[in-house]
Amino acid sequence: MKSRFSKKQIAGTVMAVFLSLSSTVSGLAQDSGWHKDEGTKRWWYSLPDGTFYKSSWQWIDGNGDGLAECYSFDSDGYLYTDWITPDGFTVNADGAWTVDNIVQQRKVQELNVEQSKVSTTPVLGINDTSQEEFLSNKEAYRDEVLRLVNRYRKKLGKPALEKDENLQNLAQIRAEEISELYSHTRPGTGEPLHWQDGVNGEVIMRLVKIPDGAFSAWTHSKGHDKLLKEKSYKRAGVGYYVTEDGKQYWVMLFAI
């Protein structure tokens, strides 16, 4: 699928995870709409200008009945189907967001009206987190990440990680830092944390709403998973931060 588009076109696609209120316009060009990749057998959605949705939730009225369903696309532009998305929402075999097996729908007319409203307050999508939610769940979510990792390590015969307050504090600082610069290098110094800082490993994640989403994403990445399973690590700290516009950032630090 990547060979179908230029780098310039890809750069113009939606990168942040949010609900689009403008993707349900009828009368699209013939080549736009749903397409199936014959290699992967997965679906993706192209736009009239040749770009495609990726790393986002989108309301789409695919059959022109005036009702839009909500779909989640991964970082390569493929539709999640019959799955729980990384941010914790259930989608059916068609990729539509469901709650208690009921497909969630919105009237296209209502979505277009919402799009036309101008507001200085960020509009939070279904996988964004409000500041109230963040402050209410912050400590519980940090503890839950550690619990999930320790449960995983126990199954693999690895020793449990002890929560370290110094690492907790540093991880929280790092969670705020990666909301500004998503990198293992720190703003200002341009260098990553290392053993002189009392840190032997770091994993980061963004734009997942719940602890299980961050944990699952790490276990599905070979490099991150290796750190989660490292036998020599004895202590850990977890950071969790949410920006004003509802985007989530997660950090876990490890030490021997």
Automatic annotation (TrEMBL):
Signal sequence interval, chain numbering: 1-29
Domain SCP: 146-254
Family annotation (InterPro entries): CAP_dom, CAP_sf
Protein name as it appears in the record: SCP domain-containing protein
CDD domains: CAP_bacterial
Pfam families registered for this protein in UniProt: CAP
Keyword set, alphabetical order: Signal
